[in-house]
Each structure stands twice: as C-alpha cells, then as structure tokens.
C-alpha cells in the first residue's frame, strides 16, 4: 500500500511544473549500459546487508542482489548526467559518491525488490526538492549547487537540516542541547549519521517507512521535526548518560 501511495503521489507531483525543482535528464535504464560497470567494495557490502535485511523482512526473494546492483549502477549513471567536473584534493570529490546509497536501497525494499518500479520512482522523485534532503547522493557534485558549495565537499543537509535541528533543539529541549554541548559532541553529527543512513540500524523498518513517507508527503522540513522528536524520546537516557 505504501509503495503504491508514494508512487502515485510522486508521479502526480513530478508532472506538475510548479512542484518540480530540478530538471529531468533523458535517461533510459538498460542492462547493456551497466554490464561493464562495477560497484565499489563499500557498495557491495551495502548490497549484502540490504538483501539480508530484505529477506529477514520477507520483502525480497532469491537473486535480489542482481536487481539491487542494477538499480544502484543506473542511479549512479543517471545522477552523473547532472554532476560537475571538480578538481579537488578532497577524497569525497575525486569520483563517485563515497558512501552507500541507503535511500535507493530503502525504496528498493519498499517496492519489494522490483527494479523497474524502483528506478522509475527514483527518476521522478529526483525532480522534487525533497530528493535533495532524503537522497544524499542526489546532490553529490551536483550542477544544481553553487560551485563554492560543491568544492567545500559539505552536503546541504549538513548546513540546512542539521543547522535547523541545532537551533530547534536549543529552543525545544535545552537540557539535551546542554548535554551535547558538555560532551563536546554536536547533535548535527549524530543527525547527519541518521539522515545519511535513512535511520537504518536506529529504527524498525515500519518507522523507517514512516520517516520516508512523512518527508515525501509533508515536505523536507519534517526531516528536522523527526530528529527533534527522536531527541525528545531519548531525553531521559541522554541526561542519565550525562550524569554518569
């Protein structure tokens, strides 16, 4: 039901010029195009974890690895069309996105391992503003960002979402904010970890689906409210750890 709902919602928005923030390049996914491509060791490890988790949740069948690899390699080729060429000494700007694509993997699981559905959804989704915040590889070396932002190697999620999380945390949960301040560890660091991993390893699968759906339906600012609500939920534990 969730797969159908987000599919229809994103399809509807991506056809409206007013709702499309990014342009859509012409890209057709073909097996032949990615035949000679390969995934990095980090991505291969991520694929193994995703497939293992998907089978545990009874969402994936045998040979799902091939479908997920197809999705990831096509996403990389599709997003490359909208990337700048950057000369930088930073490792994260040398070539491909350094981490694993947790968002595309989450969508693959929501779509029950259907590679065509997943790719069609991601291509349409990439036109919407929310894709910049939920799908981190979306803005890797992106031509949609000012060159100075690209060269800094800092993702907009860090100076947009994480910045607002810290501001709200100070106003809403001052004790938690103080606890972080005393520890010398910033809330934005842990939030960036949560957001990058789509809350994998932190929340149950149903909650991960709720997070993705809420941000798609209600807007990217709900990513901020979600993190604040997690901190509110963890407040007593955080304060206990601070005392100890």
TrEMBL record:
Lineage: Eukaryota, Metazoa, Chordata, Craniata, Vertebrata
Pfam families (UniProt xref): BROMI_C (PF23440)
GO BP of this protein: cilium assembly
Stretches assigned to the BROMI C-terminal Rab TBC-like domain: 1-243
Stored InterPro entries: BROMI_C, Rab-GAP_TBC_sf
Keyword annotations from UniProtKB, A to Z: Cell projection, Cilium, Cytoplasm, Developmental protein
Cell compartments where the protein resides: Cell projection, Cilium; Cytoplasm
Purpose: Required for high-level Shh responses in the developing neural tube. Together with CDK20, controls the structure of the primary cilium by coordinating assembly of the ciliary membrane and axoneme, allowing GLI2 to be properly activated in response to Shh signaling.
Protein name (record): Protein broad-minded
One GO term describing the cellular component: cilium
Superkingdom to which the source organism belongs: Eukaryota
């Amino acid at each position: 039901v969730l797969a159908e709902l987000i599919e229809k919602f994103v399809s509807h928005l991506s056809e409206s010029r007013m709702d499309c923030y990014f342009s859509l390049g012409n890209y057709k996914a073909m097996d032949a195009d990615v035949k000679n491509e390969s995934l990095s060791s980090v991505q291969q490890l991520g694929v193994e974890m995703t497939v293992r988790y998907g089978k545990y949740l009874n969402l994936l069948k045998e040979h799902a690895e091939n479908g997920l690899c197809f999705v990831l390699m096509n996403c990389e080729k599709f997003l490359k069309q909208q990337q700048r060429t950057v000369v930088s000494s930073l490792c994260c700007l040398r070539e491909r996105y350094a981490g694993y694509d947790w968002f595309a993997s989450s969508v693959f699981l929501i779509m029950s391992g259907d590679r065509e559905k997943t790719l069609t959804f991601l291509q349409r989704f990439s036109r919407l503003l929310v894709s910049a915040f939920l799908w981190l590889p979306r803005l890797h070396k992106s031509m949609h960002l000012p060159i100075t932002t690209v060269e800094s190697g800092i993702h907009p999620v860090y100076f947009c979402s994480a910045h607002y999380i810290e501001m709200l945390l100070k106003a809403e949960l001052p004790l938690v904010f103080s606890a972080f301040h005393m520890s010398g560890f910033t809330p934005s660091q842990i939030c960036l970890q949560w957001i990058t991993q789509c809350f994998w390893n932190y929340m149950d699968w149903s909650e991960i689906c709720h997070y993705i759906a809420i941000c798609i339906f209600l807007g990217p600012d709900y990513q901020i409210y979600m993190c604040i609500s997690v901190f509110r939920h963890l407040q007593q534990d955080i304060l206990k750890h601070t005392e100890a």
